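Notes to self after the call with IL:
- keep both proteins in one doc
- input above output, always
- annotate only the second one for now

Protein 1:
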Amino acid sequence: MESGLLPIPAKRYFTIGEAADLCGVKPHVLRYWEQEFTQLRPMKRRGNRRYYQHHEVLMIRRIRELLYDQGFTISGARLRLQELAPSGAQHDADSRAADADTAAAYLGAAPDGKVAAPRPQSQPWHDLAFALRRELHAIRDLLTPAAV
């Protein structure tokens, strides 16, 4: 399966370029696969920068093998992944939730020293909730009297 692919280094997070190099695909392919495979959900931080974890790099390699080596179609590969790991999606969601605080601290804090909350990925209305929460925190910071 992984013939010709680089070994995955012992890092916690990989940029889209690093993940693409490790999996032998181009970054635009990874962005497309994120739309097609619900199991592939990298963390997104400031400016929508993607950060892939080790298990996601392994998932990309599995998707690549199904599509390129075994000749599956996108929908066939999607079904095959669901057959192979029906409980894997729940494990990935639990893993992301458990790593949220660690990821926020690892990927950087806001300029005021506060750690920004990770952006929710599960449903579209979370984008609005995230933006509103950020805006409310900014307003609160403006209204809080400065210490003299």
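Protein 2 (the one to annotate):
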Amino acid sequence: MAKMTLEELRKLRDSKKTDLRKREADGKEIQVIVGMGTCGIAAGAKASLDAFLTALDEKKLADGVLVRQTGCMGLCHSEPTVEVVVPGMPTVIYGKVDAAIAREIVEKHLIGRSLLENLILDRPAADIIGGN
């Protein structure tokens, strides 16, 4: 293994701190939950996840949005699937979320606060029971 300089170690430390801060849940009410079960990964969920992370960084939203992974949501026919939780809006699950749609979700749902009705697959049971 090659030796790293002190400056390279500092850059690596700062990079890892930034990555860890993105994973912290404290103070983050908005959530993007990407289905990363076997079916989701096979359908391209990793590219979708990466697109969310990139778009949130570009829009300076990374510190306010929790992006996390989950297993299969049971909607294998529509993978990659993504659940979006925004306070004051219905929780929804979007289907067939590729990188372009991930960027659209960030722009229209997270920033613009409008649902992408044509892409909604499901509304989780808690949302239906709550009457939203």
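Annotation: The longest helix spans residues 6-23. The two ends are 55 Å apart (CA to CA).
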